Amino acid sequence: MVKSVLDKLYSALNELDKLLSAETSNEAQFQLWFERNPFVFEILCYNQTIPHPSQIVCGNGEEYIPDFLVRSYNGLWEIFELKRPDTKILKNTSRRTTFYSSFEEYISQCREYAQYYFVPDNRKTIEAKYNIRIQRELLSSIVAGVDKTVDKQKVHDLLFDRGNSVKTITYDDIRNTLLSSISLQTAHISNLPGLTYSSVLMLPNSAKGQHQFFCDFGFEKDKNRISVGTDNDSLFIKVWSDQKLVLDNLVAISDTPIEYDKLFNLHFEFGIAIDSTYLSLFIDGKLILHRSFEKISIHPSVFHFWSLGGDMFQETSSNHGYSQVILFAKTLSVEERMDVIRYFLETYEHHYKHQTSGPLMINMTNNQRLFYYNHPLLKADVKIPDEHPNSAEKIWAWYIADVERNFINHEFFSKYRNVIREKHPDLIGTFKETIHYKDGRVIEV
């Protein structure tokens, strides 16, 4: 199946986030990421790329292979080099700021590459091999570092003093470019009245072929209802208007990253715009479903009533585990969405890394549920007025299953909670997380 532009953007962003969060990611992995996602170069205003062009013999006699040759839309070629996100670039001395010697070597290496193309015979060799026309003097770009460790103005000034033939691009620049591209495509469906449900779940092998609900919103069986769950090894999304069933979408579990007996993040959004309805489904950061269709009439109180882990009317048995869930009173912006998904992905990656038994799951079996109105552990700290059910753009609820406070590294959790809080203060508000101890005690952090 051919991926849509939005699929490609989200997939590339998800892969990049995983590489950036893994301490062991090396230059070869970032090289492969760029090669797998060549459209990223187009977003960066390059319309042709040559990965690992011919070996270059530099003036010192050493042989190198540049990471990429790239052609900008003005027809000029550049050298495009990749370094690690943790590359040390600037160091402060008592007298002045300068580059680390290792980064000075990267700059010198780019100059050596550029000097190779000064020689007419070298240019002819490249031109004949790749059927291109290349100019005598090439500028260079080095992708290295992240924004929080780079003073871009100082880097620019130092590079200017060195002839301004090399520029730096941080990995945050790459990521922000992807975010901007997604925002351009999804601005009309961000911050809509509606809901966002994001959770960490586990389906046991015994759940294969079972019909069950992960979440159910509404107060009537056959209208004013939104449901997500599984049915016969497929994920289902069903939406009822105030009159009838208007959407019944199935996605084979085998077509998603879901594996039985393994944790996964399910992120679902539903929003209503002036003239359309929108929904999306992500599994582990991968866009599985993205639908926009005509506006449906649905009672606004639907978003007040929710059942997590099973259907609202307790008619269907459940068989899965819940680890965390967050509910929002709207659809999210792309930055909010990716921050929440990344929080979940990195959180349960941490569990696998540090706990052989994995995190505590609250097991939803038979008719067990987390209900909106009577479960002591599901805290909704935002009071949403009945007449404006979606006016409060804040978290409705954040539930965490916990045992002896070991389920999650709290320093790690606080870091990501604060990332979301600082970047999106209107979204978070003054929520409280509830922690469920093994002995049943409940505390507030």
Show unreliable segments: 374-393, 403-413, 427-445
The overall pLDDT, averaged over residues, is 80
Beta percentage is 25-35%
The CATH architecture assignment of the largest domain turns out to be: Sandwich
CATH topology heading of the largest domain:
Jelly Rolls
Q: Which structural class is indicated by helix and strand composition?
A: alpha+beta
Shape from CA axes? elongated
Number of strands: 24
CATH class of the largest domain: Mainly Beta
Notes on the structure:
This protein has 445 residues and is α+β, with helices and mostly antiparallel strands. The protein has 2 domains: 5-177, no CATH class; 190-444, Jelly Rolls (Sandwich), CATH 2.60.120.200. It has 10 helices and 24 strands. Strands 10, 15, 16, 17, 19, 20, 22, 23 and 24 form a 9-stranded mixed sheet that branches. A 6-stranded antiparallel sheet has the order 14-13-12-11-18-21, with no helix packed on it. Strand 23 (434-436) and strand 24 form a beta hairpin. The longest helix is centred in the last third of the chain and has 21 residues, at 334-354. The chain starts with a helix and ends with a strand.
